[in-house]
Amino acid sequence: MKRFFTAVLTVLTVLSCAAPTSSTSLESRAAAIAAHMHNPSSKYVVVAVHRGDWRNWPENSIPAIESVIAMEADIVEIDIHRTKDSVLVLCHDSNVLRTTNFSRVFSEQPGKSAKVSDLTLEEIKMLSLKRAHGVAIDSLRMPTLREALLCTKDRICVNIDKGYDYYDEVLALTEELGVTDQVLIKGKKSIETVAAREAAYTHNMMYMPVVDIQRPAGIKLFQSYLDQNVVPMAYEVCWQSNEDGAFEDACRKIKAQGSKIWVNTIWGSLCGGEGNDDDAAFQAKDPGEVYQQYIDKGVSLIQTDRPELLIAWLKATGHHTL
């Protein structure tokens, strides 16, 4: 199997499974995690945590990140948007209404836009972040991407959701901070689109294609990787139903190709339906009733909303020791 795209553009050094080559010390925890992610034969199960520990802290906040680091998670997933004055900040939604006390702070400006893109960083920092149950914490403010990457450097890898939309800016920042090899970007772009973007740089962040194997666009993207014999570091596989065996078939093809498999157990709609997700594992007598099926199929990267539960089970079964 070719691990590089040799047919067109040397492009696919960008998508290869080659080990990271930056000056990041292999002694750092983040570098050790990244090494497992790049190693198709590693049995270590990498745990990615969705928006940090949002059950106990505001999502996408520094304490939410610190909490999952303390849990010994491997990747923290964060979301970004750009402010009016061109600063990347951590926010899932395009506006700040759900996650901050915007309405109270700007109550005397009824026409004020709550879109991140319409607010300056100074205005963003005036807002208190809310916990999942809607209570604002006066001491917590929305972090910038720079602040988040400084917090995570060498301690945990980072998946920047929506990061591809700001690729040039994000890469410039990761290079400045020396964390490029610790950052993962995912997307649904074509092989050629990703390769052309990354060919402009000598050093890139990790990239993972997202393939929804029961939807036409996802099937087409997945097949393009197989047809062109391009082997990414891993595939994020999404599917809605287990009835047609599509997930099992995709796992066989991915393993035969020599790549790795990422599964999202955060919602049943991403992993085969109800009964296959974190909530089902939480309600089960043994979390393995849910999680073992993924290990059996060769999954080695799992994104979760129940990090403590998943990590404890993985440790107890020998799948989470660096």
Describe what this molecule looks like in 3D:
With 322 residues, this protein is α/β, with parallel strands linked by helices. The chain has helices spanning 29-38, 62-70, 102-105, 121-124, 145-152, 167-177, 191-198, 216-227, 246-257, 278-283, 288-296, 307-316, and strands at residues 46-50, 75-82, 88-90, 129-130, 136-137, 157-161, 183-187, 206-212, 234-238, 260-264, 301-304. α6 (167-177) links the parallel β6 (157-161) and β7. The chain has an eight-stranded parallel barrel with strand order 1-2-6-7-8-9-10-11, surrounded by six helices. Strands 4-5 form a two-stranded antiparallel ribbon. The two termini are 28 Å apart. It contains twelve helices and eleven strands. It has one domain: Phosphatidylinositol (PI) phosphodiesterase (TIM Barrel, Alpha-Beta Barrel), CATH 3.20.20. The radius of gyration is 20 Å and the shape is globular. Residues 1-26 have low confidence and may be disordered.
Topology:
Layout: H1 29-38, E1 46-50, H2 62-70, E2 75-82, E3 88-90, H3 102-105, H4 121-124, E4 129-130, E5 136-137, H5 145-152, E6 157-161, H6 167-177, E7 183-187, H7 191-198, E8 206-212, H8 216-227, E9 234-238, H9 246-257, E10 260-264, H10 278-283, H11 288-296, E11 301-304, H12 307-316
Parallel strand pairs: 1-2, 1-11, 2-6, 6-7, 7-8, 8-9, 9-10, 10-11
Antiparallel strand pairs: 2-3, 4-5
